[in-house]
Write a structure and sequence with these properties.
Elements lengths: L22 E5 L2 E5 L7 E2 L3 H29 L6 H4 L1 E7 L4 E7 L4 H6 L11 H21 L3
Antiparallel strand pairs: 1-2, 2-3, 4-5
Helix pairs in contact: 1-4
């Protein structure tokens, strides 16, 4: 049995059962089909699914990096403004993963974040990471739903 009529099985397609009455969606002219029981069938469109996933991750992490930059700047202790001005957040896309990088370049950023023997910690990076970590799941679901998944 082929994945779709006229298509032969190729690498990246997973099949079980024989039912073809499930739900699915199209992404970049490729059909993504997830079947319900009985006769569960999952068709993975290989590069289409990988590209869809990376597009969703890129969009979500771009949004989260903007939120993270706003938050880390808002939480940074302000005395002269150099710490707040040195804050950064950006998306780093590698071959198989997408990262949000948040931090500050000021020399005293580490001492503000962790504290010293004479100065209590005033964390501003860790609370931003905690906030962003809690937002990843809902943001991914919302973006995937907005794209028809």
């Amino acid at each position: 049995m082929s994945a779709w009529p006229g298509m032969s099985r190729r690498r990246g397609q997973l099949q079980t059962g024989s039912s073809r009455s499930g739900r699915g969606f199209y992404y970049q002219n490729r059909r993504v089909l997830i079947m319900d029981t009985p006769g569960t069938e999952v068709v993975w469109a290989g590069e289409g699914i990988a590209q869809f996933s990376m597009d969703v991750l890129q969009a979500v992490f771009s949004t989260l990096s903007r939120r993270g930059l706003d938050m880390v700047r808002a939480k940074a202790p302000y005395r002269h403004g150099d710490l707040r001005d040195s804050c950064y957040a950006f998306v780093d896309r590698e071959a198989t993963r997408v990262l949000v990088v948040v931090g500050a370049e000021a020399k005293h950023a580490l001492y503000q974040e962790l504290g010293t023997s004479r100065h209590a910690a005033q964390p501003f990076i860790r609370p931003t990471f905690d906030y962003l970590a809690a937002q990843v799941g809902p943001a991914l679901r919302a973006e995937a739903a907005a794209r028809g998944a």
